[in-house]
Structures are given as structure tokens and as C-alpha cells.
Design a protein that fits this description.
Transmembrane segments: 12-30, 36-54, 66-83, 95-115, 122-139, 145-161, 168-185, 205-225, 232-250, 256-274
Order of helices and strands: HHHHHEEHHHHHHHH
Structural class: mainly alpha
Keywords: Membrane, Transmembrane, Transmembrane helix
Helix content: over 70%
Oligomer: single chain
Number of helices: 13
Largest sheet: 2 strands, antiparallel
Length: 279
């Protein structure tokens, strides 16, 4: 069993400021405690499970888990089409009263798998998976996830792929799909404490708004500022950065700060996997 180190725990605690600021904004706007408590519970449980995973799981076991991911992830991304959805939008898998925004959970996992494939120079396979996933996201439709995933995979391939023709093909393909996703963007009304949480924070005052922005920057620390940067950490960092940026241009959930257990789970998976690979 590997011992847990302070550097392994820090990324989990860096989530707390954004969660706290979001909760304070929800409370000030009369959001029920049954809503914002879910963020706290997922953060605590997820952080504990992440630490257990880091200490208990061997690298060989982790590699086997990675190799089994793509088919499962594609199936999970397609699964929302079997549910009713909302106004023709199919992004969620429903289990009783719970709805899981599945793309925000599984895409960080898929980016890690693609990083491994790129390392093995399986460029055509990576571009093929990239195309399939982007088309599924386009059909859901989800312009935010399309943009974030496209930017992340473009960074991944740009850093690692030496074939200029394939790079150009991938760039044209991803750019086209991103443009289409914004042309056919959904008109689903925003939930204030999900998509517009940062604006609720702004209503609390300029000081709180600045604190809120700083707390979001902290979420990027494990990917961009924590020790030696790898292609995988940059790829994941770009994904989460773009997911934050798109909230200013459309009705997309703000990760971690806004209400939503699925983005929390996806972020926890990302930082835990990054820690595991670095160990």
C-alpha cells in the first residue's frame, strides 16, 4: 500500500473555495440546503475515495481500467438518447430522482485514455474516437462540451503528433463540428444557481466576485501550476478552463462552483487520475 502524501491531498482542498463561494451565493438567493448540500457531500466522499484509490490501487490495475474505458464511455455518451430529455436535449442519464450529466463525468476519463493512445502513436485511432465523441456531443446537443473536448484533444495532438497532414485533418474536422455546435446551440433556459452562479456571486459585491474568480483559478492549479507540466495535465487543464469560459457565452454549468454533482465527479476523477499517474 502506497502512503498518501501532502501533494496528493492539496488538489482536493483547492476545490473548497469555489464550492464555498458557490454555496454562499446559493444561500443568499434562497436556494434550498437540500441542493447545495449535495456539492459538499460529493466533495467530501469523492476526496476520501480518491485518497483510498491512490493508496490501494496498483499501477497495473489502473492501466487495465484505462484500457477498458473507450467502449464503456461511448456507450454512456449514447445512453442519454434512451431517456426523454428536456426540450429535445439529451445530456442526462436518470436514475430515479437523480440525473447525471454524463459527459462531464466521462470526458476527463476519455482524455486520459486518448493521452495513452497518443503516447503509443495510435494517431488514427485517436482522431477516429475524437470524431465519434464530438458527433455524439453535437447531436445531444452540447456546444460547451464540444468546444472544451475539441480544444483539449487539439492540444493533445498538437503536442504529440508528428504527422502534419493528420494534424490538419483533425483541426479542420474539430473546427467544423465546433462551429456547427454553436450554430445549432440549444435554447434551454438557464438555472441561476447552475449556469449563472458566477453572476449570483457578482450580485453579492465586487469583493465576492473577485474572490469567486480567484477560487476558479485555484481549480486550474493542479493542471497548470503544480510541479512539472505534462501533456496530460495541460490537456485536462484546457478542458476545464474552456468549460469555465463557455459559461460566459451560453447556458452551460459552471464546474464546481455551481450546483451539479456530475462536474464535481468529473473533476475529482481528473485530479485523482493525474495524481495516480504522477506517483
Amino acid at each position: 500500500m502506497e502512503k498518501i502524501k501532502l501533494k496528493d491531498i492539496i488538489p482536493y482542498f483547492l476545490m473548497f473555495p469555489a464550492i464555498l463561494v458557490g454555496i454562499l451565493a446559493m444561500i443568499s438567493n434562497g436556494v434550498s440546503s437540500s441542493v447545495w448540500m449535495q456539492n459538499i457531500i460529493i466533495w467530501i466522499v469523492g476526496s476520501i475515495l480518491g485518497c483510498v484509490f491512490l493508496t490501494k490501487t496498483k499501477h497495473k490495475q489502473y492501466d487495465k481500467l484505462i484500457d477498458r474505458r473507450p467502449i464503456i464511455i461511448i456507450a454512456l455518451l449514447i445512453a442519454p438518447f434512451w431517456f426523454d430529455g428536456f426540450d429535445g436535449i439529451h445530456r442526462w442519464i436518470q436514475f430515479g430522482p437523480l440525473s447525471f450529466y454524463i459527459a462531464s463525468i466521462v470526458l476527463p476519463l476519455l482524455l486520459i485514455y486518448l493521452w495513452k493512445l497518443v503516447g503509443n502513436k495510435q494517431y488514427v485511432y485517436v482522431i477516429g474516437l475524437n470524431f465519434i465523441v464530438l458527433v455524439i456531443l453535437l447531436l445531444q446537443p452540447d456546444a460547451g462540451q464540444v468546444t472544451a473536448f475539441a480544444c483539449a484533444t487539439s492540444i493533445l495532438l498538437w503536442h504529440k503528433m508528428n504527422n502534419k497532414l493528420l494534424e490538419l485533418f483533425n483541426l479542420i474536422m474539430t473546427t467544423t463540428i465546433v462551429i456547427l455546435s454553436w450554430i445549432f446551440i440549444d435554447d434551454l433556459a438557464p438555472v441561476p444557481y447552475v449556469e449563472d452562479i458566477l453572476f449570483l456571486v457578482k450580485d453579492m459585491g465586487v469583493t465576492w466576485f473577485v474572490i469567486g474568480l480567484m477560487s476558479l483559478i485555484l481549480l486550474l492549479f493542479p493542471f497548470f501550476f503544480n510541479g512539472k507540466k505534462s501533456t496530460m495535465s495541460l490537456t485536462l487543464g484546457v478542458y476545464f478552463l474552456v468549460m469555465m469560459i463557455v459559461t460566459f457565452f451560453g447556458h452551460f454549468p459552471m464546474p464546481i462552483m455551481g450546483y451539479g454533482i456530475s462536474p464535481l465527479i468529473g473533476y475529482l476523477v481528473a485530479i485523482t487520475s493525474l495524481n495516480k499517474i504522477k506517483r
